[in-house]
Amino acid sequence: MDIQKLTPEFSVSPQISVDDVSVAASMGFTTIICNRPDNESDDQVNSDAIQQAAESNGLNFIHLPVISGKITDADVQQFKAAIDKLDGPVLAYCRSGTRSRNLWTLAESSIETPAASHNIVIIGGGAGGQAVAASILKRQPDQDIAIIEPQQAHYYQPGWTLVGGGVFSQAQTKRTMTSVMPKQVTWYQTAANKFEPERQQITLENGERLSYKALIVATGLKLDWEAIPGLNETLGKNGVTSNYRFDLAPYTWELVQSLKSGNAIFTQPPMPIKCAGAPQKAMYLSCDEWHRNGLLDNISVSFCTAGAALFGVQAYVPALQKYIDKYGIKLQLQNKLTAVDGPNQRATFAVTDAEGNTTTEVKPFDMLHVCPPQKAPEVIATSPIADEAGWVDVSPESLQHTQYHNIFALGDIANAPNAKTAAAVRKQAPVVAENVLSMLSGKPAIAVYDGYGSCPLTVERGKIVLAEFGYGGKLLPTFPTWLVNGTKPSRLSWLLKEKMLPWLYWDVMLKGKEWLAAPSHSVTKSKPASVEDACNFEEKQK
């Protein structure tokens, strides 16, 4: 037997056999507790056989089965009451031993009952959180939903590119959180601090605990400015800017207007990042402004990307390359920004050649637009719901967690291999809404997300290359090619970006109106993850 001793009086084990019972007795155990429901698998030795062997060996036997993925307060209290009455060493088992260990840990802790309980708890009040709440309420207006979000303002982040290009004002991209929050939801103005999926509970930063029947994670990702030495200290001055921050986008436009000559560098870090086209958008709009004012010949523009290609979907590369050539941009692939010296206006890059050799190169700049490295927030990355890279581990089609069937994720935090864009959220929200409600009613999740994402690449003021694609780079155009050919620059696409998309965001997506976003449905019904899968997942995490 593979016995793990937690204390001198309590040990856990994976599934035991009838023969193992006598071995346990010889080791001094006086009680065996089974935390595994009968008939979980075909090769399982059920509790009645183990009980008969235990009694034959003079051992106590207690059957306290735990339901798949749901260790409740009642389970913990019943388990604690049982072991408090026992004398002598106890051996508890389930399939892998994880459930028994979790029960013991929870029973020994002094965790208080949650202050509140909701059917659906959504972590994050950004685009994903608000959109999925609206989609759920469209289907069930009286659904009990809580949103966990500490911020008082909500931002239309796709608009920051146009702020940096002198097209939008900051005010056009910002509204109060109250104005976009559905009136029916309960808003907790704090952040999540700890996830306990086995107990269906979360702890908030203010110390409050919440329980849920369904959890939706939409925290977004973290912009890791600190990953590049010297960057954080010089943002907003010394010619260093980024459209990835609300407060810095106006500085981008200020630099574009003031630069008459010199070196302008635009960077892109390794994937994944939100809106992979945004670093290029900033560059093209800047170049167009300099071109219109007759200054471009005096400015050396470089696009330093850590990637090996100009854009990830080949169909759009020819159109983008034409603008690289038109503006005389130096395309420098596999150039990763590693440090910034703001006062001396020097940027350091790790440059990898075709043979895989990496060297260091320092480049002077007069303007430096940085797209920072991006990663999962620590609260997610260190939680049991994350994959090895730190993102929430979901099915790419259903957006349902691979181990905990009552947890879903959408937006930038999900590990689905799609482009991290607001357009992706617009298609994901109805899928998650349908699948959450199906799960709550005991039905399988059959709404399907096809990986759709959209990146309107602003190649000049008045023209856009409208990239729309799904999983595997498959082109997924919304409009017929005779109306909008996304692989070519289009004035109609610019009108879509400037006039229509903000309305589509504020008044359609965040209101639960699913125009051109209704989900498709799978023919094969997926099976929810079992508690044994959850146990195996936890073992891997440890």
UniProtKB/TrEMBL annotation:
Which cofactor(s) are needed, names only? FAD
One of the Pfam families matching this protein, by short name:
BLH_phosphatase
* Gene3D superfamilies xref list: FAD/NAD(P)-binding domain, Protein tyrosine phosphatase superfamily
Q: Which residues form the FAD/NAD(P)-binding domain?
A: 119-242
What keywords sit in the KW lines?
Answer: FAD, Flavoprotein, Oxidoreductase, Quinone, Transit peptide
Q: Which GO terms describe its biological process?
A: sulfide oxidation, using sulfide:quinone oxidoreductase
Entry-linked SUPFAM superfamilies = (Phosphotyrosine protein) phosphatases II (SSF52799), FAD/NAD(P)-binding domain (SSF51905)
Q: Does the keyword Oxidoreductase apply?
A: yes
Q: Which residues form the Beta-lactamase hydrolase-like protein phosphatase-like domain?
A: 2-108
Looking up InterPro entries in the UniProt record yields: BLH_phosphatase-like (IPR005939), FAD/NAD-bd_sf (IPR036188), FAD/NAD-binding_dom (IPR023753), Prot-tyrosine_phosphatase-like (IPR029021), Sulphide_quinone_reductase (IPR015904)
Work out whether the entry's keyword set contains Oxidoreductase.
yes
Annotated GO MF terms: FAD binding; hydrolase activity; quinone binding; sulfide:quinone oxidoreductase activity
Q: What name appears for this protein in its UniProt entry?
A: TIGR01244 family phosphatase
Q: Which organism is it from?
A: Idiomarina seosinensis
